[in-house]
Write a structure and sequence with these properties.
Shape: globular
Strand content: 15-25%
Structural class: alpha/beta
Strand order of the largest sheet: 3-2-1-6-9-11-12
Order of helices and strands: HHHEHEEEEEEEHEEEE
Distance between the termini: 31 Å
Largest sheet: 7 strands, mixed
Radius of gyration: 16 Å
Oligomer: single chain
């Protein structure tokens, strides 16, 4: 059981500890179920462009979902971490076109599309450690996606914001701040949780 009381750093440590206990089979099974659940989401069914990310380590797996989206003809954008922790974007051309990058990340090897490319996405899939019943997402604390969300606001872009999580990571409350932008939905292997409409 995750205890959501306390500070963001304490909650992050607790959630990361739980994820570290997952086996490779746990992660692979959750990835397949997560993709099936996500593909039921109307926003993804209607999307022409999706900003996603390449999961690493014990994060909820995104490979199956990205491959299914590309098979549907969806343009999938992947983040490229810049030196200042902001995100540039490249197009997902498949697993053979990913290269190792800083912090153990995998990034597309093709042309960079610029940080503003995300403003053209119909759906933005966000990594996270937890979300609460208000849609407040708890990230890892690097601030990269806070910048993405601020960029979307400045551009007047309104994509569906969806966080991918494991079951048990939808909490009653996570510590939030005034600048936090709630997500519209969270997808877990067993359910879609909606928090606000588009």
């Amino acid at each position: 059981m995750i205890n959501a009381d306390g500070s963001k750093p304490e909650l992050r440590r607790s959630l990361i500890t739980v994820r570290a206990r997952l086996t490779a089979d746990d992660i692979a099974g959750a990835q397949a179920r997560l993709a099936c659940r996500a593909l039921e989401l109307p926003e993804l069914a209607e999307a022409g462009t999706v900003a996603a990310y390449v999961s690493v380590g014990s994060e909820p797996g995104t490979r199956d979902l990205r491959e299914a989206l590309r098979a549907r003809g969806v343009r999938v954008l992947l983040p490229v971490l810049q030196d200042d922790n902001d995100l540039d974007w490249g197009q997902d051309e498949g697993p053979g076109r990913l290269v190792r990058a800083r912090r153990g990340l995998l990034e597309p090897d093709g042309p960079r599309l610029g940080p503003e490319a995300v403003t053209g996405a119909d759906v933005v899939l966000l990594p996270g450690l937890a979300v609460d019943r208000r849609g407040v997402r708890l990230g890892r604390g690097g601030g990269s996606y806070d910048r993405v969300l601020a960029r979307l606001d400045r551009a007047g872009a309104h994509p569906a914001l969806v966080v991918l999580l494991y079951d048990g990571e939808v909490l009653d409350e996570v510590p939030g701040e005034a600048h936090d932008r709630p997500v519209h939905a969270a997808i877990t292997p067993s359910a879609v949780h909606r928090f606000r409409s588009l």
